[in-house]
Amino acid sequence: MSVPLTSWIMTLPGQTPAQIDTYDIQLDKPEVVLSEDGVVAAGEASLLERLEGVVRLHLNEPLPGVKAVSFRFVAGAVAKYDDVEFNANLRGPERLFDRTIALWDADDPENPSRILGADYHEFRFALKIPGHMPPSLRYPRGQVQYMLVAAIEWEPTVCGFTVPFWSWSPVTTKREVPVRKVPGKLECIVRRLKELGVDEKRVSVLSDDAADGDNGGIPSTTGRTVWSPVPEVAVSIPTRHATTATIVPVMVDLFDGASLVSFRWTLRQQANFEYKYNIAVRGPIDSPNNAITTKNREERFVLKNAFTFRPDEHDDGAAADATHHPIYIPLVNAPDGAQRHDVQTELVEDLETTVMTVRHFAKLEVVYRLKDASSTDQDIEAEIELPIVLYIPPTHPTVSPIPAPIAVAAQAAGDESAQPPAYAEDTAQPPPPTYAGDETTDSAGVRRRRV
């Protein structure tokens, strides 16, 4: 079957044939939630890690010449750095995974017809995103995207004759999938403590499944990192903290007559980027005509300047030698008169890919006195830097059913679509991928793609 002459122009990019009334991708849930703990909500872990939905195609007339309806699930990360002075548009792309399956094939013997008839067609799909994948990210210096693409592919024919090596532009519809990730309470922090070489005798990580009231305000769902510079002092901070929570709860406990003089907290964000291409010179960073030699870049940003707590200034009605000090610290700096969203533009949740890593560290400084210290003895000082994982929590909105029309007989995706394949890095570097909305035009009228 050939593509009608009147339909040739309609297959150009951005145009849809007149036979199509509805062509889109609908998701059963508006976002996918990954969890390193394996449980986000009781009984929902398997559902939250699955991406399910339907490709809707409503035809008012039969659509001849269709070879197949394909479905692609692609995810990628890219690190960015632009410097006009040095003519640098550095990019570090990473393909997380890429999978294409056929939802409908004209050559499938099970199809009653080789032509898509005038009807409500629905093609169900089901995919599972591995829990180790990073969350979605929109950031001036990097991004992580999960994209769904459905494509109507045409037969390579002209006026009824097959033309070798000929192809018509497919008609596509796209949808980005928001992915949220709830980090583990234990594993990621333990791994980072080992990387920092922290003394295991003085720092411990607890899952903390006790009731909230037993932890002095630290939610039991966050886990706790406990630092004890000496047996008489214990400082507890959350192992993970949601960016939507404006206050970070910290606990300082004292034993055997020790007293707290002051406690100081500083929160910083550290990001590392790796670049492979310089788009300005259209080549890899290692190319001879590239003047930029930097392949890696580190960025440090203080989210919360030193917050100081003194018992005699903050404990309402409590004695200065109290043994239990709950401390509530603002997550980020907020200048006078500024709203929180005005100063949160640089706050990014923890992320780990090959080309981009974002982590957060809390510097703790405690000054204390032991029981037998005399009035002439100096106060004892101790400090440490501990990792804390910041993340954007899932919204868990009310799920609405997919709007009508609903097909009577939907074409279901096979079981083979359940697991995306592992991606093996190609030794021969492919051209960097292009992301939507990432193009600029320079003063000479030359369009540059930023990836």
> How would you characterize the largest beta sheet?
7 strands, antiparallel
SSE-based structural type: mainly beta
* Radius of gyration over C-alpha positions, nearest whole angstrom: 28 Å
How big a fraction of the residues is strand? 35-45%
Looking at the structure, what is the overall shape?
elongated
Q: How many strands appear in the DSSP assignment?
A: 28
Fill in the CATH topology of the largest domain.
Immunoglobulin-like
Euclidean distance between termini CA atoms: 39 Å
Overall domain count: 2
Based on the coordinates given, report the CATH architecture of the largest domain: Sandwich
Question: Stretches where pLDDT falls below 50 for ≥5 residues?
Answer: 1-14, 39-48, 336-345, 397-451
* Overall pLDDT confidence: 75
- The CATH class of the largest domain is Mainly Beta
Can you give me a brief rundown of this structure?
The chain has 451 residues and is mostly beta strands. The chain contains three helices and 28 strands. The protein folds into two domains: 5-183 and 395-449, Immunoglobulin-like, CATH 2.60.40; 187-391, Sandwich (Immunoglobulin-like), CATH 2.60.40.
